[in-house]
Design goal:
The complex is a heterodimer of chains A (370) and B (121).
Chain A lengths: L23 E5 L6 H4 L5 H10 L33 H10 L5 E4 L11 H19 L6 E6 L5 H11 L5 E9 L10 H10 L3 E7 L14 H6 L1 H14 L2 H4 L5 E4 L6 H15 L10 H8 E4 L10 H10 L5 E2 L22 H15 L6
Parallel strand pairs in A: 1-2, 2-3, 3-4, 4-5, 5-6, 6-7, 7-8
Helix pairs in contact in A: 4-5, 5-6
Chain B lengths: L4 E6 L9 E5 L2 E8 L2 E6 L13 E7 L8 E10 L6 E3 L4 E2 L10 E2 L1 E4 L2 E5 L2
Bound molecules: FE2/S2 (inorganic) cluster.
């Protein structure tokens, strides 16, 4: 048990106004320590394949991170496992330190870039089974995200139907940099299955596709990779609305996770303006794009947008116009972690603060399914 | 009247380049030994409150111009926060990338008789 050796954050030094409600964290990353971690959840065929081929992990990022494994330097468990690989350590360093009410697990495994279809499907199922047994079973505050193979939408839908039987799973998870915009029709089986299961879809920072990571090609630095992630989020919002996904699946709800949020108001203004002149391209839409966005999407707060004047954050919230739109997230154990007592500036207070830190997530995710 | 100078440990216990947390009267401080010169600061990052003692002692990366060779100078008391990576100069407490607004409080440190003393005045 790792709690005794924890280097806890200095929570007592300068906390913001506390929320009386338990904080809900909408973005926590568990990692299999190595491929061996997943072997108990893979068939003999795939265990043998891994051992014969020496497969260690799906291809990783092309941009070395600022810190090893993109982790907080204090998130390495003392038992030698990688950050995010030890549920006990994560419980102590995250759930207990901040007294969280719930935390949504978002496994980031690269099965989306595995070209062998059968192996990719097996890996996705294994990640879900490992998440269930190693994490969800370890503490009742964890909630899960069903990882799928977006490159194989029918298989993804099948996995959703299988995994959603466990009520501790509260969403289906995709990564924002996919192979194509998610509104495209071949992805619709994923949304249909999510709606059938009563689950929202979370679209998370990152991706493993072969597309350049910006709309103008490959940049040089992780600084650009990380900052420019909003481009992919914008593209997915444009696609899901334009393709009529929310007309076809009126119950579909989407969480944009780790994409920031300050960019949304000008996107809505531009989108609505262009729609007025170009609606014939997308005649299935029955209302302004911004109306679909505000009704069907929610966004997590991390990485918190930090204007030099914190009051400007209030202006942004005002421009978004819905006080149930933002949901707090830490991104533990990553280096760009947002601390529950410090990330949201104290200018956000009272009911608005409670909503962002807790109530909005409680309304969006069905934590009581379990 | 109590002295503001506090003995925080044996000099040998502060390894070069390894930030270490010490506690004085319930408050945390980070002490850093850079080539035998010692520095001390509050052990809390002004950004979001991480413990700087969990961070890393850094060299200074510099380029004379765009595209010029990158230099890495050791010897300055630069400490990088373990969370979002802000780098502080413990010689004066300023943050390299935002020296006007982001600062940490620093304290004089003396080594006498094999002991390290921090003056919290
Ligand atoms: S808490 Fe230190 S850089 Fe953010």
């Amino acid at each position: 048990m790792a709690a005794a050796v924890l280097s806890a954050p200095a929570v007592a030094e300068a906390p913001s106004e506390p929320t009386a409600l338990g904080v809900i964290d909408c973005d926590v990353h568990p990692y299999p320590n190595t491929i061996d971690t997943l072997k108990p959840f893979l068939s003999a065929r795939w265990v043998q394949y891994i051992e014969q081929s020496g497969f260690a992990a799906p291809p990783g990022t092309r941009y070395p991170k600022g810190f090893e494994l993109a982790a907080r330097r204090d998130a390495w468990p003392p038992n030698g496992l990688r950050p995010g690989a030890d549920p006990d350590f994560a419980r102590a360093q995250l759930l207990d330190t901040w007294n969280l009410q719930y935390a949504v697990l978002v496994p980031l495994y690269g099965h989306g870039s595995v070209h062998n279809d059968d192996f990719a499907i097996a890996l996705a199922t294994a990640v879900n089974e490992w998440q269930t047994h190693d994490w969800l079973d370890s503490d009742p505050r964890w909630r899960g995200s069903i990882v799928v193979t977006p490159q194989l939408p029918e298989a993804a839908a099948q996995e959703i139907r299988r995994a959603a039987k466990d009520p501790r799973y509260v969403q289906v998870m995709l990564v924002v940099r996919g192979q194509a915009p998610y509104g495209k029709r071949h992805y619709h089986p994923i949304f249909e299955a999510a709606c059938d299961a009563g689950l929202p879809v979370g679209i998370h920072f990152g991706g493993w596709g072969t597309n350049p990571i910006t709309a103008t090609g490959w940049p040089s630095y992780y600084l650009e990779d990380h900052t420019g992630m909003t481009q992919a989020f914008e593209a997915q919002v444009l696609s899901l609305v334009s393709e009529g996904v929310f007309e076809k699946f009126p119950d579909l709800r989407v969480a944009l996770i780790e994409g920031g949020f300050a960019w949304l108001p000008p996107l809505m203004w531009r989108f609505d303006k262009n729609y007025k002149g170009l609606r014939e391209e997308v005649p299935w839409l029955r209302k302004l794009p911004s109306e679909y966005i505000l009704e069907h999407f929610r966004m997590t707060t991390q990485p918190m947008d930090e204007p030099p004047n914190p009051q400007h954050l209030l202006h942004i919230l005002d421009m978004i116009g819905r006080d149930d739109f933002l949901m707090f997230a830490t991104d533990y154990p990553h280096w760009d972690f947002d601390a529950p007592d410090r990330a949201l500036p104290s200018v956000v207070r009272g009911e608005q603060r409670d909503k962002i830190m807790s109530l909005n997530a409680a309304a969006f995710y069905d934590f009581e399914r379990a | 009247m109590t002295s503001s100078v506090h003995d925080v440990g044996a000099a040998a216990s502060f390894q070069v380049g390894k930030p270490r947390r010490v506690e004085v009267q319930g408050r945390g401080f980070v002490v850093l030994n850079v080539g035998g010169a010692h520095f001390a600061a509050r052990d809390v990052c002004p950004h979001q409150g991480a413990r700087l003692s969990d961070g890393r002692c850094k060299g200074h990366v510099l380029a004379a111009a765009v595209g010029a060779p990158l230099a890495y100078h050791r010897g300055r008391a630069l400490l990088q926060c373990p969370w979002h990576g802000w780098i502080f100069d413990l010689a004066n407490g300023s943050c390299l990338t935002d020296p006007e607004r982001a600062r940490i409080r620093t304290y004089p440190v003396h080594v006498r008789g094999g002991r390290v003393f921090v003056d919290l005045a």
